[in-house]
Design brief:
By secondary structure, the chain is an alpha/beta fold. The chain contains 10 helices and 16 strands. Helix 4 packs across helix 5 and helix 4 packs across helix 9. The chain is globular, with a radius of gyration of 19 Å. It binds zinc ion (2 copies).
Length: 339
């Protein structure tokens, strides 16, 4: 089968590799219908992460697909199901998974698709994917929704819901700030804040394309380098920029919440005294995709969330290397694999 390989900074190619097979009884094999980039992938390709020395490796960890084979131990997933695939490889039954923390699975640790972390599990820009613990790691898509715009459900799209809704749903008349920059995650956060949480939402960025999407999603938009408000209940840092992280940290009400979903590969200075004086609840960590996939899918099926507004372009599978190494790949390009 063909599998997209990250060869090195700015270099992608399709390689012919052995197709995966069922190894354990709880495995399933999934053929992608559509796959997309996590915001992190753009940084990997641009050599802004620490992954380049590990190249070559299969890239991609966001897709929806069709189940084409299941092991004898699968009880809920069956052949023909159209599913979202979680980015992580998690068992679903250890103490961390049961707490809703599959990204901290005690059996599989940091294992995931599309990055060389704790084993090799292939990438979602491949024609076939092996999914361990398939009953847990796959989420059935609701009927009546377009699977293509849900390609991100197993990571960035679910992360938008996870970053905002559990915190903001406990606050009356919530106000949310989203500091964008990484691509899609900030926009999915805006969608969840406006439409799931009913929050007044301000989106800060300096990219006119993303700002236009945020406005369409119902946010007020403002220049990230301009004047900003400082009394938000929740500020989301989706910037990957230390200066913007600092602005997010200092934009919330006393005892407010800051959730950082950008990834910093270098140490960052944090204004600890100002955080102490203000009282800030700061969270920084991987998203726990599986726990948020089902409520996110329910919100899409109910017409509450609008992931289609975040999609920046829909392309054919063969175009993946060219689009992703082009000067403007877009903040959420989705690639469709024909049957
Ligand atoms: Zn990701
Ligand atoms: Zn586990």
């Amino acid at each position: 089968m063909r599998s997209l390989t990250f060869v090195g900074p700015g270099k992608l190619r399709f390689d012919e590799v052995d197709a995966p097979t069922i190894v354990d009884p709880t495995d399933a094999l999934v053929r992608p219908l559509a796959a997309t980039t996590c915001d992190l992938d753009h940084h990997v390709i641009a050599d802004k992460t620490s992954f380049s020395p590990a190249a070559p490796f299969a890239l991609g960890h966001e897709c929806v697909g069709t189940v084409v084979e299941v092991g004898p131990g699968c009880t809920s997933i069956t052949v023909g199901d159209v599913v979202g695939v979680a980015w992580h490889i998690a068992c679903g039954t250890c103490a961390q998974c049961l707490k809703g923390h599959p990204a901290r699975c005690l059996r599989h640790g940091d294992a995931q698709y599309g990055l060389p972390v704790n084993g090799v599990w292939g990438g979602t820009f491949s024609e076939l994917i092996r999914v361990p613990f398939a009953d847990y790691n796959l989420a059935l898509l609701p009927t009546g929704v377009d699977p293509v715009h849900l390609a991100s459900i197993g990571d960035n799209l679910g992360l938008g819901w996870e970053t905002v809704v559990p915190i903001v749903s406990q606050i009356s008349d919530p106000q949310v700030a989203v500091f964008g920059g990484t691509g899609s995650i900030g926009l999915y956060c805006v969608d969840a804040a406006v439409h799931c949480a009913g929050a007044r939402t301000v989106y800060y960025d300096d990219d006119p394309v993303r700002m236009a999407v945020a406005e369409k999603l119902g946010a007020e938009v403002a220049d990230i380098d301009g004047k900003r408000e400082k009394d938000f209940d929740l500020a989301v840092d989706a910037s990957c920029d230390p200066e913007k992280l600092k602005k997010a940290l200092l934009s919330v009400v006393p005892e407010g919440y800051v959730n950082s979903v950008g990834i910093y590969f270098q140490d960052v200075a944090v204004p600890m005294l100002q955080l102490y004086l203000r009282g800030v609840n700061f969270h920084n960590g991987k998203g726990h995709a599986r726990a948020s996939m089902t409520p996110t899918l329910d919100a899409v099926a109910a017409g509450v969330l609008h992931p289609e507004l975040v999609t920046s372009g829909i392309y054919e599978w063969d175009e993946i290397p060219d689009v992703l190494t082009s000067e403007r790949p877009g903040h959420k390009p989705i690639f469709v694999l024909d049957a």
